[in-house]
Amino acid sequence: MRVNCVTQLLFDRAMTWWEIVQLRHVTETLTWSDFKTEFENQVCSRYHRKVKEQELLALRQGDMSVLEYEKRFHDLSLFAPHYVLIKEHMIKKLRDGLRKALRQGLIALWFKSVKELIEVPQALEACIGEGQQGHHGTGK
């Protein structure tokens, strides 16, 4: 019963929002870009987007795994797409946030995609992890 009630409340709110958007764009065709802007403004305040943008700019891998770091980078980039519109800029920003031990081996390499970039430090991370496990297992 509660789920139905909440669903109806959300549906009504969404319909009201959509009707207002349509009224604002009555004399023009609503493009996908316009819709996304309207939707983002409804769901997420400018302040919240600005906070997430600053998080993206300050993001470093820290103690996250490479995959966790990539996911966090992607999630934050949705709030600040203008920083990642150019693929080379996105790859550089992602690379520069990796831990120093992983980043050092990547500086001279050229990557054509985020996937290519992520595969290398992910493999390095696995090797480092294996080396640490092997070292601890010897009792030294």
Compact overview of the structure:
The protein has helices at residues 2-24, 32-43, 46-58, 66-77, 87-96, 100-103, 114-137. The protein has 140 residues and is mainly α.
Question: What features would you describe in this structure?
Answer:
70% of the residues lie in helices and 0% in strands. By secondary structure, it is mainly alpha-helical. The protein has a domain at 44-137. The protein starts with a helix and ends with a helix.
Write the element-wise H/E pattern from the N-terminal end onward.
Answer: HHHHHHH
- What overall form do the CA principal axes indicate? elongated
**Arithmetic mean pLDDT:** 82
H/I helix tally:
7
- Helical content stands at over 70%
- Low-pLDDT windows of residues: none
Q: What amount of the residues lies in strands?
A: under 5%
Number of strands: 0
Q: C-alpha Rg, in Å?
A: 22 Å
Calculate the terminal CA-CA distance, rounded to whole Å.
62 Å
Give keywords.
140 residues; mainly alpha
Topology:
Elements: H1 2-24, H2 32-43, H3 46-58, H4 66-77, H5 87-96, H6 100-103, H7 114-137
